[in-house]
Structures are given as structure tokens and as C-alpha cells.
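Trying the structure run again after the queue cleared.
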Amino acid sequence: MVFWLIFSIMGVQFFSGRFYKCKDSSGEVLLPSVVANKTQCLAMAATHNYSWVNSNINFDNVFNGYLALFQVATYEGWMEVMDDAIDSTKVFLTQRVCYLLPCLYSSSRILGSSCTIIYDLQTDFNKYIVYLSYD
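Done. C-alpha cells:
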């Protein structure tokens, strides 16, 4: 958990407040070529019924960062996080995504390794219990 804290803090630094997007009345996300930022989205809200919404999984605080990292590590819905990271609009974001994605991948590998170690320890403990019961 402490290891994930580092990546959660990094995610907050890189992506805090950047997973917002402009959606139309049917819930479709508008391309940045149509609506580039919040000001344009809200200016067109009255005429086109657009809304400026945040993603469910985001890096707005450390707790949400933990949830996003867990979602990526378990491969459940990680595409949503990746799409939001790619679609976020800030300067030098491409470099940050290229840095964050390996971090997310390594954290998923660490989670898998931790689960394997716990399983092996439990298996060894069960063998020890069976061995003691035959004495």
C-alpha cells in the first residue's frame, strides 16, 4: 500500500482535475476539436445542452488515485483510465502519460507478485498444519 501511495501521489500531480470532459445530452463525449475546454463547453451548454463532467475514476485526490491504480492493476476497466489519460488536455501530457503508464504496469505486476507470495505462504502453512495433525 505504501508503494502504491507513491504512484497515487504522482497520479494526483500529473492528472488532478484533468479527466473532465464535455458531453452532449445523449452522453457522448465531444472531441477536443469541437469543444476544446471548459469555457467553450459551458458557453455552448444553453444552446446545445452540453455538460462538463468528471470521470468516475480519476486522480483528483490520493484516495481516488488508489482506486484508479487498483482498477488498472486488476485489469477491470483499465481502458477507461487509459482513455481519460490520453484524452486529457494539458501541455506536455504526452510525456507524462509515457511516464505514468509504465508505473501503472509495474504496480499491477507488484500486486500480482504479492498475491502469489501470499498464496504460497498459505499453501506452505496448510502443509505444515497437515503435517502436525499426523504426529
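The chain has a mean pLDDT of 78. Worth checking whether this holds up in the mutant runs.
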